[in-house]
Design goal:
The protein has 325 residues and is an alpha/beta fold. Helix content is 30%, strand content 15%. It is built from 12 helices and 13 strands. The strands form 3 sheets. Strands 1, 2, 3, 6, 7, 8, 9, 12 and 13 form a 9-stranded mixed sheet that branches. The protein has a two-stranded antiparallel ribbon with strand order 4-5. The longest helix has 15 residues. The structure holds calcium ion (CA).
Length: 325
């Protein structure tokens, strides 16, 4: 086999992060979506990670399976009393029997993004190790380097199920040579207590990203309002290298035809040395009242000064940055 391509990161900014792969074109987190994102030229491929019943980190966004797989048909008996099929209740071998499709509302089968791929194929859930192997192989065969942008999903919830996700994710990343701040990986989490644990107790030296949601989402026990203050950002800067805010926390269009209104979040984050990678650009679901894709990219990159963007459509974001014809 050829020598492993280097994990060292090239200098580049702003960065284009393929959100769940090129998920605007192919079902999220499938190999197809990841390979296509790599081919489109994304700088980073994102991995959301959840643990299986047999403790394998797999690349999957939700804690439950029914919105993007055929679990209700394959394992009807594995539904919990609350009506959901939890990924953590199945072993990897069982999860491999499921097919991944575009996101739907399981109550009525309606597509969340009706203009997307729309086909049903045997696209599989993959382990984090398999995906890192895919990226390594593509980096080798294409001679174009893409980094990885890995998320520890809902660590507190995993603990309520008797599982500890972060150590498994870190072990797998280390197995593929992602060990230091010089390696081309960002490790993201919404839970600030978990990021502190990852840094201090687990001794992780990777670049960390504090994701920032809204308190009303109840994504974690983290107080996102406090994190977004100057004092909060200064505290984040003691353990993380960047933040991942929601786009409306940076810019909003108050009404159709109105000029965009900006927060000071990017400036405040830069003042304490934090990179800013907002989420998520979707060509088929623009921020409220935004006139078009070009306006969104211009607002984030040229006016606000963001350092990257999570995007379902990596080619659109690359084109907006002048990196693709
Ligand atoms: Ca994510």
């Amino acid at each position: 086999m050829n020598p492993s391509p280097s994990n060292s990161r090239p200098a580049r900014a702003p960065i284009v992060i393929a959100h769940r792969g090129a998920s605007g074109y192919l079902p999220e987190h499938t190999f197809a979506a990841k390979a296509y994102a790599h081919a489109l030229g994304a700088d980073y491929l994102e991995q959301d990670c959840v643990l299986t019943r047999d403790d394998v980190p797999v690349v999957f966004h939700d804690l439950v399976l029914e919105e993007v797989t055929d679990v209700a048909r394959v394992f009807p008996e594995r539904r919990r009393a609350d009506g959901h099929w939890y990924l953590i209740d199945l072993d990897l071998a069982e999860l491999r029997q499921l097919s991944v499709h575009d996101r739907v509302n399981p109550a009525n089968g309606e597509s969340t993004y009706p203009e997307r791929f729309g086909e049903v194929l045997p696209l599989r859930i993959r382990s984090l190790a398999e995906e890192l192997s895919l990226v390594r192989g593509l980096n080798r065969s294409t001679r174009r380097h893409a980094g990885v942008y890995t998320e520890v999903k809902s660590p507190a919830w995993h603990r309520t199920q008797g599982k500890d996700l972060a150590p498994r994710v870190l072990e797998t990343l280390a197995d593929f040579g992602y060990r230091t701040a010089d390696d081309d990986v960002w490790l993201q989490c919404f839970d600030d207590a978990e990021l502190l644990r990852i840094r201090d107790e687990l001794g992780c030296r990777l670049r960390l990203v504090q994701l920032i949601g809204e308190n009303e989402w109840q994504e974690s026990a983290t107080d996102y309002d406090a994190l977004r203050t100057a004092a909060g950002l200064a505290r984040v800067a003691t353990y993380a290298a960047g933040i991942g805010p929601w786009i409306p926390q940076i810019v909003q269009w108050p009404a159709a035809g109105a000029e965009p209104a900006y927060s000071t979040l990017v400036r405040d984050a830069h003042a304490v040395g934090l990179a800013v990678h907002p989420y998520t650009f979707r060509s088929d679901q623009l921020p409220a009242h935004a006139p078009d894709a070009a306006a969104v990219h211009r607002a984030l990159f040229e006016v606000a000064g963001a350092d990257g963007l999570f995007t379902d459509f990596p080619d659109v974001t690359l084109a907006a940055l002048g990196r693709r014809g």
